[in-house]
Amino acid sequence: MNVVLKSGAAGNSGFQEAYFMSDCHAPLPPQAVELVRLALVIRDVLDDEGHDAGEEGQVALACAILNRMRRFGPDDSGSSGAAGKGGCNFGDASFARAFAVACLVLSGDIDDPTGGATHFHRHTYNPKWARRAVPKALIGQHMFYALAI
Q1: Of 65, 75, 89, 145, which residue is 20 to 30 A from 15 by alpha carbon distance?
Q2: pTM above 0.85, yes or no
Q3: What stretches in the chain show pLDDT beneath 50?
Q4: What is d(CA 25, CA 40) in angstroms, rounded to the nearest whole number?
Q5: What confidence score (pLDDT) does residue 99 get?
Q6: Spatial distance between the Cα atoms of 19 and 34, rounded to a whole number of angstroms
Q7: Domain count, the chain
Q8: Half-sphere exposure at residue 108, Cβ-oriented, CA atoms within 13 angstroms
C-alpha cells in the first residue's frame, strides 16, 4: 500500500494532502496527514542518525520531532525535507518502523520522555546552538533541548 503526497503552495516544501494510491480522489483526514508527515520525518532522522537507537531512543526522537513540528510548523521539522526521500511505501521496513513509532507517539498513550524537547543531537557532538542551552534529557545517545528559537 502506498500513499501519494500532494505538495502545498508554491515555495512550500511540505505537503498539504495525502491520498491512498488506490483512491487518489479521496484525501486522508488531517490527522492522517499529520501521521504520515511525522512518519516521513522520523524515517529520515532514524535513517540518518537514529538507526542504532533502541525503542526508547526512537520514541524520544519522535517526540522531539513532533514537538518541533507542532511548535514551529510542519515545514520546520529538523529534517532536510519530510518527503525528500520518496513516498510512503508501507512495504518498506524503514517507513513501516517509523510509521509504528509515529502511531505510538501521536496516540498519547506514552508520556514525552524528552520533557517537551524540540532539538537534539548525539551526545558525542557539540553543535554551537547547544553550547549555551540547558539539556532537558539524555536518552540513549542523544541530548534533548527545549529551545525557543
Answers
A1: 145
A2: no
A3: 1-2, 4-23, 79-84
A4: 22
A5: 87
A6: 13
A7: 1
A8: 0
For residue 144, give every residue at least 6 positions away whose Cβ sits within 8 Å of its Cβ, in sequence order, or none.
60, 64, 114, 115, 117, 119, 120, 135, 136, 137, 138
The answer to whether 117 and 145 have CB atoms below 8 angstroms apart is yes
Cell of 105: 507517539
Joined together, the cell numbers standing for residue 50 give 537514529
Q: Residue 27 belongs to what domain range? A: 2-145
CA distance 140 to 4: 34
Cell of 74: 510542519
Residue type (1 letter), 52: D
How confident is the model at residue 28, as a pLDDT? 65
How far CA 107 is from CA of 3, 24, 100, 115, in Å, comes to: 21, 26, 11, 17
* CA-atom Rg of the chain in angstroms: 15
Q: Rounded to 10 degrees, what is the CA torsion of 90, 139, 117, 108? A: 50
Rounded Cα distance between 117 and 73, Å, is 15
CB-count exposure of residue 89 (10 Å: 0-12, 13-18, 19+): middle
